Amino acid sequence: MVEAGVTSILNFAPTVLSVPDGVDVRKVDLSIELQILAYHVQRKAAASPAADVTEDSA
Question: What is the mean pLDDT of residues 20-43?
Answer without folding.
Answer: 95
